[in-house]
Amino acid sequence: MAGKKAVVIFGATGDLAQKMLYPSLYFLDAEGHLPEGLTVTGFARTDIGEADFIAHTHAAVVERAGKAFTEEAWKKFSARLHYCKGDLDSEKDFRALAKTLDGADDCLYYLSTSPNFFGKIARNLKATGLAHPGARVAVEKPIGHDLASCRRIEEDLSEAFSEDRIFRVDHYLGKETVQNLIALRFANAFFEPLWNKESIEHVQITVAETIGVERRWSYYDSYGALRDVVQNHLLQLLCLVAMEPPASLDPDVVRDEKVKVLHSLRRIGSDEVERETVRGQYRKGFSDEGTVPGYCEETGGAASETETFVAVAAHIDNWRWAGVPFYLRTGKRMPIRSTEIVVQFRQVPHSIFPHHDLIANRLTIRLQPEEEISLQLMNKTPSLDRGGMRLKPLSLDLSLSDAFKRQRRRIAYERLFLEALEGNRILFVRRDEVEAAWKWIDAIIGGWKERDMKPLPYTAGTWGPSSAFALTERNGHSWYE
Ligand code: NAP
Q1: How far is the CA of 276 from the centre of ligand 1 (A)?
Q2: CA 368 – CA 377 distance, rounded (Å)
Q3: Helix, coil or strand: residue 401
Q4: Domain at 173-410+430-473: CATH code
Q5: What CATH architecture is 5-169?
Q6: Closest atom, ligand 1, to C-alpha of 45
Q7: Considering 82, 145, 171, 233, which one is annotated as catalytic?
Q8: 202 is catalytic
Q9: Residues 89-107 pLDDT 10s
Q10: Residue 400 contacts by C-beta under 8 Å, 6 or more apart in sequence?
Q11: How confident is the model over 204-261, as pLDDT tens digits?
Q12: pLDDT in tens, 259-277
């Protein structure tokens, strides 16, 4: 049937699909963004009938949507849902999927499975005629485990789909504040002249989670914090902060600028890892939940040398950023949940306030828990100023939830789905970006191996091993917490 549209979610019973993907599609549908007639088919091995799968998904959507849930919107959305029980290894099961799709010629396949399956899924889609010219594929991060495995997956994907039909997801790129970073930098005149080594002393990017690895232990243990978060989310944020102004918002123009940043990252290999990186692994400690076990004692855990914390002092060797460290840090079982970018400006060149330690300006772009932007400035404290002017650092705050009170905070995947359905690639990562990121990460991992650099212990509920503090302090800087 001509013009029939379908979304297929591979890994439909999994954590990501149930917590994020189905709720995102529900919201898009509730707001009238999904095309008439679009079907959403889940594919996984779990042996449940379609009605039970829909009931299971209903519970997940109710939980995620909270007060925004309405039965009316669900009724409309659930009419789109189908379930196809199948194994990703089985070509026969892909043929059954093709039958369920009933000749749909405009399809988005979302691969929400372990990356080990990406190549296999692409081959099966191709073998069963599902990778037709009207088909697109969205793949979750991480693509592979290192550059070599990434290239193997990419080869399989490109055998089935042309580059303009491959949508590599890094859900951070769907977040409102990350989008806003582009607006902030390029829709305001006063940042650009200051956005360089003359005015900026250093940049910090932190992704801190209070949770442990929980039931993802076996997946996580083969990846670790560097591959799981730095290779994708942290490097994407670094690129958006550091890239040159693109000439337009054309997806390839923006991605050209991002990839140039990745190529300018100074290699950190065996001679540099001990100086420029810190690895940590949490031990028993505390969180909001009370006493929590160490990484190796988590359910499904075992003795392990995988890092759950990593800090890196990255350097971008180009004219704009020479000599400006970009400190990247991510960890599990940190004291607070927070994702933020801190741009630390330089101190004024000469102070006319002899009795004050001036605090240099700082721009903070917060992605989590709230989406906020704040600029710290020195201000005069209101007073008669007998004995000299009194100063205090105060911040200019822009809270997106306050500024746009009636707007629901969207799930990042809503925007990503919409863009992928419409074939717009700006929020997705290009193959050369992923490969450049893996090349940089592989050098660090190779360096750790050569130096036998094992993760240092840290107590759950703290900011990682003490050497993470030394990483910044040796340059006279300190982490903002
Ligand atoms: P998960 O909970 O382990 O789910 C994996 C899914 O794959 C399940 O639906 C499972 O269903 C299905 N599956 C596994 N083997 C299969 C097979 N042989 N045939 C058919 N289906 C199979 O994983 P996840 O946490 O949702 O993560 C999915 C992907 O998203 C991963 O690449 C992950 O790195 C990425 N990701 C996840 C998150 C997150 O918050 N969870 C965030 C960012 C990225 P059955 O057991 O029913 O077959």
Answers
A1: 33
A2: 22
A3: helix
A4: 3.30.360.10
A5: 3-Layer(aba) Sandwich (3.40)
A6: 48
A7: 233
A8: no
A9: 999 999 999 999 999 999 9
A10: 176, 177, 180, 370, 371, 372, 373
A11: 999 999 999 988 898 899 999 999 999 999 999 999 999 999 999 999 999 999 999 9
A12: 999 999 999 999 999 999 9
